[in-house]
Design a protein that fits this description.
By secondary structure, the protein is an alpha/beta fold. It folds into two domains: about 200 residues, Quinone Oxidoreductase, Chain A, domain 1 (Alpha-Beta Complex), CATH 3.90.180.10; about 140 residues, Rossmann fold. The protein is built from eleven helices and 16 strands.
């Protein structure tokens, strides 16, 4: 089969590989559409997860089932499926402890384009098919379905990690596709005020549609100074970090009320340490909680989030600003995500209906 791969740090291209082998509880899929993630950019050009040679990229897709193992009960060849970016091993001790995304090791639930070949190929392997795949509702088109692989569950997980409650004032740092879904998730959870940090007009307009009430531009001064001025010096109840760098945590802590919570879902692709301001963290005793987590995967979460889209409660179509047709556009779409022009939120490559 053909696959679009990271040849080594800084180099990409098409390669030939053997079609993956299906285990007894697994499935082989062929993508119907694939989406490019900023994580792919970090992986290739920043070397964020270390050197990889001839590793097929991609962890966002929806697909058609080609083959299932003998023990798979709920899926068959021909089924259209949602495919989560995170595919845990559900019989692992970590999954039983409630941290399936770290099954068999730190971040090891993230398999595609990390520990094994990803989905930018004619065929891809999905472990534990009954536990990880979900049936794709007929009412969801394949482009929107790609947003359910990673953008929706990651953005919503930031809101979960921040423990957003009714009436909270919430700061969302970064309003790319993940941050936009954090805005939507905070709104659904009952936030009374959502302050979004971002500058691109397209993303600002999308954030307004998802429920953002106020906006901060890092170009106009420090985030914390602007947020504290907007909240009469009180700060916010919760912060979701969906963009930025290792230095963003300092601003988040300074914006947060005592007893507040930070939920980070930003992939920190560069930097060695994260700086936490000592005084603003209450000299270690401010009850300002910092939670960072990889999105949960699995079938149940895919089905629940899919029902929000299928039922009209969540419109993900504004995220897919650049839709291409055919495998020939994968490299173009990946380079587009690397450059991030002002009119881009998310590139998707449609392969079939």
């Amino acid at each position: 089969m053909k696959g679009f791969a990271m040849l080594h740090i800084g180099a990409i291209g098409w390669i030939e590989k053997e079609k993956p082998v299906c285990g007894p509880i697994d499935a082989i899929i062929t993508p119907l559409a694939v989406a490019i993630c900023t994580s792919d950019v970090h992986t290739v050009w920043a070397g964020a997860i270390g050197e990889r040679h001839n590793m097929i990229l991609g962890h966002e897709c929806c697909a058609k089932v080609v083959e299932v193992g003998a023990c798979v009960k709920d899926f068959k060849p021909g089924d259209r499926v949602l495919v989560p970016a995170i595919t845990p091993d559900w019989n692992s001790l970590e999954a039983q402890a409630g941290y399936s995304m770290h099954s068999n090791g730190m971040l090891a639930g993230w398999k595609f384009s990390n520990f094994k070949d990803g989905v930018f190929a004619e065929y891809a392997h999905v472990n534990d098919a009954d536990g990880n795949l979900a049936h794709l509702p007929d009412s969801i088109n394949v482009v929107d379905a790609c947003m359910l692989s990673d953008m929706v569950p990651t953005g919503f997980h930031g809101v979960e990690l921040a423990d957003v409650q009714f009436g909270d004032t919430v700061l969302v740092i970064g309003i790319g596709p993940v941050g936009l879904m954090s805005v939507a998730g905070a709104n659904m959870r009952g936030a009374s005020r959502i302050i979004a940090v971002g500058t691109r007009p397209l993303c600002v307009e999308a954030a307004k549609g998802y429920g953002a009430t106020d906006f901060v531009s890092y170009k106009d001064g420090s985030i914390e100074e602007q947020v504290l001025a907007m909240t009469d010096g009180k700060g916010v109840d919760k912060v979701v970090i969906a963009g930025g760098t290792v230095d963003t945590f300092g601003s988040a802590v300074k914006c947060l009320k005592p007893g507040g919570k930070i939920g980070n879902v930003n992939y920190l692709g560069e930097g060695d340490t994260i700086g936490i301001p000592r005084v603003e963290w209450g000299v270690g005793m401010g009850h300002k909680q910092i939670n960072g987590g990889l999105m949960p995967g699995g079938r149940l979460r895919m089905e629940k989030l899919g029902s929000l889209v299928a039922g009209g409660r969540l419109d993900v179509s504004p995220l897919s600003t650049h839709v291409f047709e055919g495998w020939d556009h994968v490299e173009e779409a990946l380079l587009l995500m690397k450059e991030k022009p002002a009119d881009l939120i998310k590139p998707v490559i449609k392969l079939a209906d």
